Amino acid sequence: MKRFAFDFENELINLESEIDRLKSIKQLSKEDSRKLEELEKIYSEVYRKTYSNLTPWNRVQLARHPYRPTSLFYINRLFKGLQEIKADRRYPDDLSLVCFIGEYKGKKTAIAGIEKGADSRERQKRRFGMPLPEGYYKFIRLLEIAEQLKIPVITFVDTPGAYPGIEAEEKGQALAIARSIQKMLFVKVPTVSFVIGEGGSGGAIALACADRIYVLENAYYSVISPEGCASILFHDEKRAPEAAELLKLTADDLFKLKLIHGIVKEPLGSAYRHPEETLRNIDKTLENALQEISSKDVEQLLKERHQFFINIDRNINNLVK
Amino acid sequence: MKRFAFDFENELINLESEIDRLKSIKQLSKEDSRKLEELEKIYSEVYRKTYSNLTPWNRVQLARHPYRPTSLFYINRLFKGLQEIKADRRYPDDLSLVCFIGEYKGKKTAIAGIEKGADSRERQKRRFGMPLPEGYYKFIRLLEIAEQLKIPVITFVDTPGAYPGIEAEEKGQALAIARSIQKMLFVKVPTVSFVIGEGGSGGAIALACADRIYVLENAYYSVISPEGCASILFHDEKRAPEAAELLKLTADDLFKLKLIHGIVKEPLGSAYRHPEETLRNIDKTLENALQEISSKDVEQLLKERHQFFINIDRNINNLVK
Amino acid sequence: MNDRIKTNLKEDILWLKCSNCKEFIFKRIFEENLKVCPICGFHYRIGAYERIEMTFDDGIRGFKSLFEDIVSKDILGFTTSEPYSLTLEKNREKSGVKEAVIVGTGKVKGYEIAAIIFDFNFMGGSMGFGVGERIIRIFNYASQKKLPVFAFIASGGARMQEGMVSLYQMPRTIIAVEKFKEETRLPYVSIFLNPTTGGVLASFAYLADYIAAEPNALIGFAGPRVIEKTIGRKLPERFQRSEFLLEKGLIDKIVRRNEIRDFVSWWCRS
Amino acid sequence: MNDRIKTNLKEDILWLKCSNCKEFIFKRIFEENLKVCPICGFHYRIGAYERIEMTFDDGIRGFKSLFEDIVSKDILGFTTSEPYSLTLEKNREKSGVKEAVIVGTGKVKGYEIAAIIFDFNFMGGSMGFGVGERIIRIFNYASQKKLPVFAFIASGGARMQEGMVSLYQMPRTIIAVEKFKEETRLPYVSIFLNPTTGGVLASFAYLADYIAAEPNALIGFAGPRVIEKTIGRKLPERFQRSEFLLEKGLIDKIVRRNEIRDFVSWWCRS
Ligand SMILES: [Zn+2]
Ligand SMILES: [Zn+2]
Q1: Which tens digits make up the pLDDT trace of B212-249?
Q2: Sign (positive/negative) of CA torsion D175, D176, D177, D178?
Q3: Which of B134, B147, C154, D16 is geometrically suited to a Cys-Cys bond with C118, CB 3.0 to 4.6 A?
Q4: Residue-level pLDDT at B165
């Protein structure tokens, strides 16, 4: 079976396959043995080449990589004793957005994640991480519980966007997102958001208006998908790589624009090759973030949260000549 | 066409029919003329007899009388420039519970009413005044608007109860009622409730937890319908009149138990024969009530609202020997 | 599914027949299994003190029942074949509790909690003044003592023998819940048991932060018979059962009886 | 239904053909009728200043445009066939407005109001920094001057040329709305025009106390083409139109253009 590979990874994946093939042979010929040695020598060089100097489009591709860890991967490992909050009590549960109360370093924490699903059956069930209005209303309920229990809220964002469907529109997708943003902006407890894969416009920002917003090195966070942008600008979705460049959607660009609080590093080769190390980086970032904001009193916290968004004009005026 | 009549009104209605018949004859015979004169003499006596000394069951019957004015009758006449609040923005509008912003004596007011409908087509459409969860959630939205605009809330209650159906249960009827009561108890503006016809248990109290609660003289407000009570107690719905007696569900009884703030008088013959006069009585009561409570500051208002409910034990201990 | 099953089984028999799966089960095993059928998992209805015995660290001895003197009285002079006061007496004898709810405190896995435990054997767990008042008191008490509140609900709704005084327990208990939430940052968790309907469900019970239910419990605002009468047809089998509510997004979780101590103590942790 | 209809009609013609009902209508009547077809009632799209002219007591003269100097800039260096700064210039010329939204104050039937009026002719009424900032400023201004706020929305959503800065106008404007609501007891009312979609709808626009829409306006989070692509089939004719939204419980009212002055002034009364 051919492994999944994006264009820019092709050379590397082919090398890997060839190395694996040779390794699987029980009695290697002299020639093959030499070849394997040679291949292994160049492998590390190609690996480095492939994952250094990634373009914004490459990062979008990595953000969407089918093997990339999804929200539940991190949630299940970072938090103990997860108790799930199911549904908004007006509609059946939306599995594309999961909510829990759990324990982080021995302390109760509210957790939400937009979950794409780990395999194709799961993905179907979870609508490929595209929430319905009831998903956002469930998240609002989680925020209300967090407020009542006075516990911090951690969110994991990984969505191509809110679900664009008939049912979603009929149930008021726009209002659900507006209310989700509103509640997140005014919730009286510390909040931390991680964009771990796709940060697709309105559907993503609904869970990302936190006291601390982090984007993973190979995640993206964008006002529109590169394809959507290319289709409007160039009438050609295939020019998405150019659009990805224009949109300044990488963690690096967003941090330079001061639109996020930090970048979570991924090891060379990205999260899908190094999930545990990426997890550790998130863990470290989260611990530090909570330490920074947990001691603040609510009034100060909200004031700073609002100023972060309101004051983007200062930064912008500095950036535009 | 025979007019609608409850058993206890039969004699009166028959008299009316006979009088009307005689009056419609162009050239009355001497005998008929004498008969009409006689009938008119006894009519007023029968009228008085019929409507004095009404039993609790008679009042339940009058509360359900098909010609009795419904919420919209009062709302349309008491308030000017009605702007309707439609739906809770998550489900299609529930027509059994209507919400408005209107003007009362020149001042903006929030108004809600459970509406049975005036004719049979309307009644079908309005589910005979039995709200669905979305009706109560719409009412909660009205309360939020009233809070934002700092305007008083007036409610009109006329319901056999919240709708008992599959759809209603699936959408969380119980939680909708709990939240409606909760919001009404804590809304930061003055509130006045009128039980104008049927005050059917949970579905009614969801709109009747106000600073001032009034019940019309021939309305009823009960924990269970007399039929339901009779069916449990006696295994016989037909013994509802006895149950009505036991339940202490009339305005008079409730006022004696100090469970309501006052009774709105109806002219002899009840609201269905004298809608305009009943309207005037409601108007007067409402004006006085608003005068009493509008000047209080919010904290005092809520404190008193809560104490009214919490302190019913004092009254009860006085009542029970 | 049969809701009314014989639980007060005669002492002299060793085997019971499960009314759900019709299998014969050893009585001792049934008792050890917290009155859950070991074969089909059917959760049999239990009284408040049975619940206390199996939930608290030292069972009934580890539980402090509070506000025992608060009970309902015959406010309205409600007399049918017997006066309501006699009905109350009879129910006290039958159920072994003085009111349809027991409130108090005790430890679960070492954590002190305040608890509300309904007894369906007492007038169908119906809420009149006594029940409402006890609930108000325990919320106030929990607020003072900084204890989380756990409500084990089993109730047919408001108690009609006290008329509108019963219905008024809905706003009264809701005020108590809200004051508790205002004054503490502690969890209030409801566990719906079989059955939970009417005015209890539609007031304080549903306003918990988190809601769990035992398997197959009947939970709804209107009783199934009322609904069938209104809509003029039979209801589907699973309608208004815990699993149905979970599917419809109306509760958060189903907890089996043997998981309840873990569940409760989870909410008590930091 | 045709959304994109020619409204910039040549001066020299007296008759127009309604693109909706295909009837010929007298141009002067059409103008007097606030650019609503007198035969079929179709509401044609109008610019911000046309809206101002027909809404305020003394038309444009009665309106004070505020924060005119706040406009979007090319933050990201967004250059395709032309730089974004040139796109902005071109749109200014084309539409006659400097940004996709006009904010200011004026009187309607004697009542002073603060207004937010989108111009769809300027880059599809898209919200970038300039639009968001103007909205924030007018909410703050209205709060200081104690004026009710009326928002006339017509927007395709966030403006992609400013990247995430545009998306951040969603939380920014929401903060402004909430501050206004915290500081005043005055109404904030939205009127959705054709079309209203995306990030504008999903932020400050939908958080109004009351929401009306002009007839037949396209209103939705996702655009119809995106939805059709996702679900793989054609959408029903009336889907996402004002009347559909009213039916689904998503808006409160439909107001015809000639009712808007009455509607606005109603909210201003005591
Ligand atoms: Zn069994
Ligand atoms: Zn036309």
Answers
A1: 999 999 999 999 999 999 999 999 999 999 999 999 99
A2: positive
A3: C154
A4: 95
Q: What is the CATH number of domain C45-269?
A: 3.90.226.10
- ipTM score of complex: 0.95
List chain C residues with CB under 8 Å of A93: 249
Give D192's strand partners.
D153, D213
Average pLDDT, chain C: 94
Query: Residue D28: helix, strand or coil by DSSP?
Result: helix
- Asked whether C and D share 3 or more beta-carbon pairs under 8 angstroms, the answer is no
Q: What is the pTM of this model?
A: 0.96
- Residue given tokens 């009929």 in the structure block: A170
* Tens digits of residue pLDDT in B146-194: 999 999 999 999 999 999 999 999 999 999 999 999 999 999 999 999 9
Asked if A90 lies within 8 A of B89 by C-beta distance, the reply is no
Distances (CA, A) of C210 to A101, A144, B211: 10, 11, 30
Q: In angstroms, rounded to a whole number, what is the distance separating the alpha carbons of residues A214 and A266?
A: 13
Instruction: Decide: A205 and A192 in contact? Cβ < 8 Å.
Output: no
- The number of residues making up chain D comes to 270
* Contacts of residue C151, Cβ cutoff 8 Å, sequence gap at least 6: C115, C116, C188, C189, C190, C191, C204, C205, C208
Q: Vertex C248, ends A97 and D250: CA angle to 5°?
A: 70
Kindly report the number of other CB atoms within 10 A of residue C173's CB atom. Answer: 29
CB of B202 within 8 A of CB of B181?
no
State the span(s) of chain D assigned CATH 3.90.226.10: 45-269
Residue among B162, B254, B310 whose CB faces C164 most closely: B254
CATH number 3.90.226.10 is the correct assignment for the domain at A60-320: yes
Scanning every residue of chain C, which has its alpha carbon at the shortest distance from the alpha carbon of A87?
C249
DSSP string for residues in D43-58:
B----HHHHHHHHSTT
